[in-house]
Each structure stands twice: as C-alpha cells, then as structure tokens.
Write a structure and sequence with these properties.
The chain is of the alpha/beta class. The protein has five helices and five strands; from the N terminus they run E-H-E-H-E-H-E-H-H-E. It has helices at 14-30, 50-61, 77-88, 97-108, 116-124, and strands at residues 3-7, 33-41, 67-74, 92-96, 127-131. The chain has a five-stranded parallel β-sheet, sandwiched between helices. The longest helix is centred in the N-terminal third of the chain and has 17 residues, at 14-30. The N and C termini lie far apart (29 Å).
C-alpha cells in the first residue's frame, strides 16, 4: 500500500492546513495510508498528544480514513521528520513551502545545490510534493 507522510504544526497553521489538504487529496486519490506527523521539540516541548493532533485535524477536515497520527519528540525538526519518513517507508512526502525553505537553508550548509526534493528522493526514494499556502 502507498504511504503518504505530511508533517504539520500544532496548532494547525494556515500553511499546515494547506499542506494537509493536499496530502489528504493525494492519499484519497491513491487509496493510500496517511501519516500526519507533528514534531514536538524537546527544547520547546508543548506536550502535544496524538489525541490533540487528531482532534485538531478532524475539526478542520472531518474524520480521515486510513490515517494515523504521530507525535515525535526531537531536537531538530528536519532530522525527526527524516527519521519518520524512513521508518514509515513513505512513498510520498508532502511538505509546506515554508518547511521546504527551512530544509533548503539547512542543506545549504552541507551542499552546493540545496534542492530538498532531489535530496529526499536520493536518500529515501520517495516523491516529494511542496505545497504553497496561498493556493
């Protein structure tokens, strides 16, 4: 089965809602499993629970079939997202343009051409879709 992973902020921001909307569309279209991921940083922990994340998503989108909600704790958002993408064996990753921009900044430190889509495809063999909130 196809797996789609979508990292979001909690509480859901405008960008997270736009990204999640595209991810749910893709998951429905491909009859895929959807993983909604929130990274709760150790240094700024808000103690977000899976139940809170699920309630927030369902209050906007209603109940979602074949969806699991994951809250991971970590020091770096990008690293924690990569770990979840790998652990979930994701086929598609849907990132907000703001998130992709932060990844590009991070990769710029290590690479000459910080193209996050190419980087993730090479490292994880998955499709990366970037969503703008003003769509």
């Amino acid at each position: 089965m196809t797996r789609v992973v979508v990292p979001v902020r909690y509480p859901l921001s405008k960008h997270s809602r736009a990204t999640l909307s595209e991810a749910t569309r893709i998951a429905e279209e491909r009859e895929a499993e959807l993983t909604v991921l929130h990274v709760d940083l150790y240094q700024e922990s808000h103690g977000v629970t899976r139940a809170e994340l699920k309630r927030a998503v369902e209050s906007v989108f209603g109940p979602l079939e074949r969806t699991r909600y994951v809250v991971r704790r970590g020091f770096l958002v990008e690293e924690t997202i990569l770990e979840e993408i790998a652990a979930d064996d994701a086929d598609v990753v849907v990132l907000g343009s703001k998130q992709a921009s932060r990844w590009r900044t991070m990769l710029r430190r290590f690479l000459d051409d910080p193209d996050i889509e190419t980087y993730l495809r090479q490292k994880l063999d998955c499709t990366v879709i970037t969503v703008r909130a003003d769509r």
